[in-house]
Design goal:
By secondary structure, this protein is of the alpha/beta class. The chain folds into 2 domains: 8-172, Cobalamin-binding domain (Rossmann fold), CATH 3.40.50; 181-492, tm_1862 like domain (pyruvate-formate lyase- activating enzyme, Alpha-Beta Horseshoe), CATH 3.80.30. The chain is built from 18 helices and 17 strands. The strands form 4 sheets. The chain has a 7-stranded mixed β-sheet, with helices on both faces. A 6-stranded parallel β-sheet has the order 10-13-14-15-16-17. The radius of gyration is 23 Å and the shape is globular. Mean pLDDT is 90; it is low at 385-419. Bound molecules: cobalamin and iron/sulfur cluster.
Amino acid sequence: MSEGAPLRILAYKPRPARQTIAMERVVCCEPLELEYLAAYLAEHELTLLDGMTDRRDVVEVAVRVQAQLVLFSSFITNIEDVLAWAGRLKRLPDPPQVFVGGVHAEVVPEPFCSPDVDGVFFANQLEGIAAVARRIQRGEPFDDVAGAVFRVIESDGGAPTWKKNPGPPLDPAALRRPRRLLFEKNPDRYFYLHHQRCASIKTAFGCNEKCNFCFCTEMHGGRLGLRPIDDVVDEIAAIQARNILVVDDNFLFSAARLRDFCQLVRARRLEKSLIVYGTASFVAQNPDLMAELRDAGLRGLIVGLETIDDTELAGMNKRARVADNEATIDICNKLDLELFALFMVNPDWTPGQFRALARYLRQRRLAFATFSTWTTFPGTALSSNRASPVGDFQGSSGAPAAVGPGGPDGIHPASRAREPQWWRYDLLRLHQRPRHLSPLRYYLWLLYLYLLPSLLPSTGAELRRRMGFFRMLRFAGHAVAIGVGFLYKLLRWR
Ligand code: B12
Ligand code: SF4
């Protein structure tokens, strides 16, 4: 079969939904998903559009570059926007084919199955789109490509149906390196708090832990997939930036792999500053290894401390207990690692429980902390297990119901229709009425907790030491503006 001309493809990572918190002034990550697509579609004429840093309208850009394919990478919070853009694209005089992939589709492809979307990738997505583009280029049908759901037009003119082709998750050992086109062109656009020019790397897929609220446990077919560590270190060595955010769900899980990592970094004399996600149980049990990692370049640690109550931690199926969280804080202080603590707030808490958390933050002098509302994402264990020990977080108050498999083709009939208000899954909004507070008081507590670390004198000193005086002021200004802006959004879009 003859090879056609390269396709004109536009790949888009959407700007955050306008109803959600605008964090781009303090965190703006390299759009690795687009740069992976660039690696797999290198033979085509590809345009990458990062909505986090480039606010141009995707439909106008598609028209300008005469895109034949438009690819969306979507979080759950982007679903409505993606479907709206797909609709506008399909109404163009010469409409492109529209495909969707990304984190949410990986676990729950169904909500994207709209008449304006031609296919949704959920497993081994990068190989899948490369195969589909090749088929389209050759004028061949592609509805049998694995790991995707395709809209199939009946030849007799009947209504379109959906065909879901199962497939295995990607093979991390065979993964190509991302082509860092956007980062290398504009490194200053990407930063993590005060870590400027911060690139990203992914060394593993899925998570080894099984925290029952967590969407990440469902990714990569519910398993953990690792890239070979020497390949990871080679990639790090080639990154043209000192600061690197490791976007693995949990980089700290295998002591042996981490020792190999440190040894390779030392052998190659790499001088990088790394920020990684990890668990408190691992940090607490491996203080010596944490010191070795610090010597290998570890600077920042993002840890889900979640709560200050052992019963709640056990109910979430967390391995760590409060004592591990405490040990993690101490180890980070001792090793001078920046700790970014993630907490989850339970809408069933009494005012006393909020006050206890505030007291804890003051006592432990946590400079960086974020607070999420306990949220059940569709596709997670809790979304189908209503008898969870941490309470019932199924959608209420107008939130979309969780969708699961159903129907002869595995697609829930209800989820083919456009679901409203996916942006509510921003990890902050309530999905149920708080038990002891009004929603407004709940959100005010959330705002107070969010602002509290910046109000502590110890934080001022810490930030000044790490960022310098003027950056500290700018950061504090951004933090307040983000918090107040979000409160406005909460009231504007209830
Ligand atoms: C780093 C990170 C962030 C960074 C931003 C990262 C980024 N690139 O935008 C920050 C901290 C800013 C952030 C913010 C938010 N995040 Co976040 N984040 C992550 C984290 C830890 C890693 C994401 C990442 O960088 N992956 C690297 C890329 C390369 O992997 P990937 O996206 O999976 O893409 C792969 C494939 O899917 C494929 N692919 C991707 N797109 C496409 C498109 C097509 C067409 C094809 C074919 C293939 C394809 O290529 C990649 C190679 O395998 C994930 C956890 C996780 N396991 O994913 C959470 C996660 C994605 N975040 C999540 C959420 C909810 C948010 C927020 C909404 C939270 C909030 N409070 O507002 C915001 C939204 C910001 C926004 N952009 O709108 C959820 C999303 C859940 C969901 N079902 O969608 C996750 C899964 C974490 C969780 N709590 O469950 N996040
Ligand atoms: S909360 Fe963190 S450690 Fe737990 S399953 Fe999710 S990503 Fe893994």
